[in-house]
């Protein structure tokens, strides 16, 4: 399996799901290199950006779990960089 580096952007429209989002992020924390959060209270949005390095299978598992939550949008950008996993 190949490891990839990329970003996952998460937009939360309803803050009541934030605990579920944070729990999922914590569950997959082993491959998260960085996390940035921006609460936009005046717009009713919370934005989280993750920098990740892992296999596409694990990235897809996390983004799929997040995307199934109500009021959550998820987008991923993967670099062309690839590294063989040991």
Written account of the structure:
The N and C termini lie close together (9 Å). It is elongated and about 45 Å long. The protein is of the alpha+beta class and 86 residues long. It has a single domain (2-80), classed as 2-Layer Sandwich (Alpha-Beta Plaits), CATH 3.30.70. The protein has 2 helices and 4 strands. The protein has helices at 18-27, 56-67, and strands at 2-12, 32-40, 45-55, 72-84. This is CopG family transcriptional regulator. InterPro entries: Acetolactate_synth/TF_NikR_C (IPR027271), ACT-like_dom_sf (IPR045865), FeFe-hyd_TM1266 (IPR023860).
Our measurement of the CA-to-CA distance between the termini, rounded to an integer number of angstroms, reads 9 Å
The top level CATH class name:
Alpha Beta
SS content category:
alpha+beta
Number of strands: 4
Taking pLDDT < 50 over at least 5 consecutive residues as the criterion, the unreliable ranges are: none
Radius of gyration: 13 Å
What strand order characterises the main sheet? 2-3-1-4
Rounded mean pLDDT score: 94
Q: Estimate the strand proportion.
A: over 45%
- The run of helices and strands is EHEEHE
Any idea what the CATH superfamily is called? ACT-like. Chain A, domain 2
Seen as an oligomer or otherwise, the chain set is single chain
Shape: elongated
């Amino acid at each position: 399996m190949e490891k990839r580096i990329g970003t996952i952007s998460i937009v939360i429209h309803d803050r009541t799901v934030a605990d579920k989002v944070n729990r999922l992020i914590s569950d997959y924390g082993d491959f998260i290199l960085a996390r940035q959060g921006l609460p936009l209270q005046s717009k009713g949005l919370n934005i989280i950006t993750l920098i990740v390095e892992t296999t596409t299978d694990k990235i897809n598992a996390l983004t799929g779990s997040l995307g199934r939550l109500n009021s959550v949008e998820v987008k991923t950008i993967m670099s062309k960089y690839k590294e063989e996993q040991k």
